[in-house]
Amino acid sequence: xxPAAHCAQxxxxxxxxxxxxxxxxxxxxxxxxxxRFASTHPERFLMxxxxxxxxxxxxxxxxxxxxRPWVFSFAAFLCFRAYDQIRVGLAQTGMPVTLVGSHSxxxxxxxxxxxxxxxxxxxxxxxxxxDIWAPGSDxxxxxxxxxVMKTNRPAYIRYPREPWGExxxxxxxxxxxxxxxxxxxxxxxxxxHVADDAAERLRALDIDAGVIHLTRLAPFPTAAFDAxxxxxxxxxxxxxxxxxxxxxxxxxxxxxxIREPVFSWPANxxxxxxxxxxxxxxxxxxxxxxxxxxxADLGRGT
Length: 302
Known about the structure:
The chain has 302 residues and is an alpha/beta fold. It folds into two domains: 3-160, Thiamin diphosphate (ThDP)-binding fold, Pyr/PP domains (Rossmann fold); 174-297, 3-Layer(aba) Sandwich (Rossmann fold). The chain contains 13 helices and twelve strands. The strands form two sheets. A seven-stranded mixed β-sheet has the order 2-1-3-4-6-5-10, with helices on both faces. Strands 7-9-8-11-12 form a five-stranded mixed β-sheet, with helices on both faces. Helix 4 packs parallel to helix 6 (83-91) and helix 9 packs across helix 13. It comes from Paraburkholderia acidicola.
């Protein structure tokens, strides 16, 4: 099941008790599971067609009337084609519309460059008054949906195309995956699983490394993140995004020191076709690649 499908399924359940919840879709419902909502709550599902700008504006109008619309599309289409409508209709007005961007990041499988969103965090984080979330598991999704519905603000939830497994621990805005360690690989979304693989390989080399998973990116959970860094001697970023405007810049803008290298998609890269495993190996972002580079930088051979 695609990760965004878990968001749609959670909305199916929540909508049974909250009549304000609607889902709008940009003609891709069967690609990420929004058709689940259409089947269960057809009276609150709007197929907007391939018209992302109109879809976001429609959702803003619905929110102004007291509804809580959730807008689904591929992140590449939603964040970029409808950027001005998001800027004016949501960020400037504060209308509580939730944008669900599927197929974000660089692991787009066979879809190719036009369907990959490599800099969506940079684009969305440049807007005021917009909450940004990047869940990394199904449990995270349920947590995020409930957190979004507690507020009266616009939000963007970022999902990859690639299915994922669960992550240990209770969902939170940010948390260690497992125990606290001396070194931290900081990540979000799908790449938290990549970072966890790298950290496990580092521990096998007697390097005390673990993963801090960020579920909320904006507003940045500074107090909670500070508490996680107690005793940490170094932070590396593992990011399913281009470096510019990604997690490294986000942390630096909040005053945190980041170690080099930053593990992210190349700055001059516009996307590629291939399985997730192939792409990670091709661009030196596999768990083995990351662990090897960090071990070498710490003077520990693999």
